[in-house]
Amino acid sequence: MSAIIVDGESVAGKIRAGLTEEIDILKKKGFYPHLKAVQVGENASSRLYVQNQQKQCEAIGIKYTLDELPADTKEGALIEHIKKLNNDHSVTGVILQMPLPDGIDAKKVQTLIAPHKDVEGMNPANMGELVYGNTKLAPCTAMAAVELVKSVGVEIRGKEATIVGRSAIVGKPVSLLLLDLSATPTVCHSGTKDLSAQTRKADILIAAVGKAEMIKGNMIKPGAIVIDVGINRVKELDAQGNPVMNPNGKPKMKTVGDVEFATAREVASYITPVPGGVGPVTVVMLLRNTVEALKMKANI
Known about the structure:
alpha/beta, Rossmann fold, three-stranded parallel β-sheet, 10 helices, 16% strand
């Protein structure tokens, strides 16, 4: 058996199309989405992420602006800036770009973004809504993982779901989202005694632990749906296990997930690739949250 590849780009494209139509309708009613990004200092990876966010937003009709603060910005000044955006009625969503400079408590500042503008779903109030099953703005990666499970069209109710990783942005919210769909979630972590026993019973396996290719094919239940959230940079090796060098004499690097794709694909029924799986859907979940934030403001 060889698993069907769940194409994140395709899933994201369908969601984008629906959001484009929804935004057009909102604009005709006089409601305009505006996502404000805040970046402190220069960071190459963050810059690329900002450019991608802007491109994706503008493609479907969301206004996107960036506030660039100097690298020496203090925590107090950043907090005041966030409060200003919270009170700015022209801004319907706020995202704080990571990483932040040393000396700024990222979690503290992020949780000060107003719940109705928190497009990353990280405010404690929005996290609390997950517990009540009243999900509007949830962490984007967690939503993306569940959206990919739903996209394969398999009945989720009653399924055993194992989540490897208990982070606040993936593991914990994923378990709650799946619970709302009447799956039976199990969350594994560093204290789990027999990880393989837990993963082998999973009809739905979501790997979000941040360890390259930790989940092998022999740890997966035949026919399982496998969603790989991991993004890990590792050295590319040749047939003898030696690093492949680039023209500059440095090891070539490649991106892999938390699941050993080659072996897992022979066991699973559906599997997401890395890259090209969860990543594209995570970005579009940010867009969906931005639209939801506008609807919350408009009370519609």
